[in-house]
Amino acid sequence: MIRALTLVFILFAGFATASERHVGYYYPAVTSTEVFDRVIRRPGSNRDVRVDFLTQLTQAQLSAPESPRFIFSAKGAGSTDLILVALDDEVFRTLFRARAVMAQMTASIRNSPIFQEQNLQTVATFYDLLQMLEFDKLIITDGHSWTHQVEFQRD
What we know:
The chain is α/β, with parallel strands linked by helices. It has one domain (2-152). The protein has helices at 2-19, 47-63, 95-109, 113-117, 126-132; strands at 32-36, 70-75, 81-86, 137-141, 147-152.
């Protein structure tokens, strides 16, 4: 019995470590969370689609005349965790500023083919796009003192 309990404890400890292995390396511990559960279905989302999306975002940032103020990366099995890390001390100084950046991203993607084809340009948000691409988490951080995690739920 003790051997079985020890094995269960080790398995759960390993699971927690694996799911939180990016904390302390890419970003500080999560200080706030929210759940986004509105679902707009788009067939065909997979790891390749998510990686292509990130590649396009990064290329757009790097082709702009100014230096990027934050970076995108995807981690986790299937690249389902999207991480945004501030590269300066101002852009995500507060969660409110980070949410303003998310709102600006919404405005910039509303003319994208994915929103236009489904007639979503006036109702969908950046979070909806991430939900459609089947990301499981969005992790936003100032890279210094706070990390906000958005969990995407699909039923």
